[in-house]
Amino acid sequence: MKPLSDIEVLDRPVWHSLGGPQRSLDVGQGAVRRLDPRFGPFAAVSPGAEDTLRDHMLGGEVWLVETDAFPAPQGLKVLREAPLLQMIAEGPIAAFDDPEIVPLGEADAAQMADLALATEPGPWAAQTWRYGQFHGVRINGRLAAMAGERMRPTANLAEVSGVCTWPEFRGQGLAARLIRKVMAGMAARGEVPYLHSYATNASAIRLYESLGFRARRAMVATLLGPE
């Protein structure tokens, strides 16, 4: 079988991340790869073994990010389907220094969770911020916006994720600055940034295009839960 290229693995980002650079976060077994639920609800399954997914729900729901909608296996039901646009950065990425952008860590976890759960940039769990480095901007002591890193399907690809801003601080260019900071960090490590946007979020897609991302392909996020 012809080995997959770095770009082709993006067709199954969860599968390759949990079987590759982030395998330490995989709590699945056999044909199922399941992210430790403390980090998030993502899972992937080997083709033909879909019915085994119900044994890896760990009492909750799971998100699958694939090229097509994921039919509900036996014992599960589809709770939500969300069309996504997967985008990848092209061209050189310049170093970026912004004195107002600060690294975030454990002391910021509660404010990060409040922001993510209120604005819903994607699934968020107690340890999601530990995926990789997150950065934020504070205004009057409050975390106004943040962006960070998530899935790494190969050592050379890294996902920009968790990009969100409180509504009252939008329109100030905070997201663009934070994404540039995250991208610069990835590029310094020899990684190519990629990301997922909800396909209906035209303003976000325009922002990503202005930062050097191009559309790679359509994807679908499927949320499954018990029947």
From TrEMBL:
Keywords of the record: Ribonucleoprotein, Ribosomal protein
One MF term in the entry's GO annotations: acyltransferase activity, transferring groups other than amino-acyl groups
InterPro entries reported for this sequence: Acyl_CoA_acyltransferase, GCN5-like_dom, GNAT_dom
Gene3D superfamilies according to UniProt: 3.40.630.30
Biological source species: Novosphingobium taihuense
Domain annotation N-acetyltransferase: ranges: 99-227
Descriptive protein name: Ribosomal protein S18 acetylase RimI-like enzyme
Example of a GO cellular component annotation carried by this entry: ribosome
CDD domains: NAT_SF (cd04301)
